[in-house]
Specification:
Number of helices: 2
Number of domains: 2
Distance between the termini: 16 Å
């Protein structure tokens, strides 16, 4: 039961971070659009597309070990 409490706290923290960063993110997107600088998002999106592939590879190779390491870390 304690594990579920910790997971709930992590979800609540995630929602808090979302609410905290939502308005600055929207402002930044409008800024990029107004100054025609959407191209600045290309590189971060390229990196962001690789992250699930890398995690997927590690999970495919050894999900059990990755799961245990994740839970030992957090």
């Amino acid at each position: 039961a304690h594990h579920f409490y910790e997971v709930k706290k992590l979800f609540l923290l995630n929602y808090f971070v979302l609410l905290l960063t939502l308005i600055p993110s929207i402002y930044y997107l409008f800024y990029l659009k107004r100054h025609k600088r959407f191209w600045r998002l290309v590189q971060p999106f390229k990196i962001g597309m690789l992250v699930p592939i890398v995690f997927g590879f590690f999970m495919l190779v050894g999900f059990d070990r990755l799961f245990i390491l994740f839970h030992e870390t957090f």
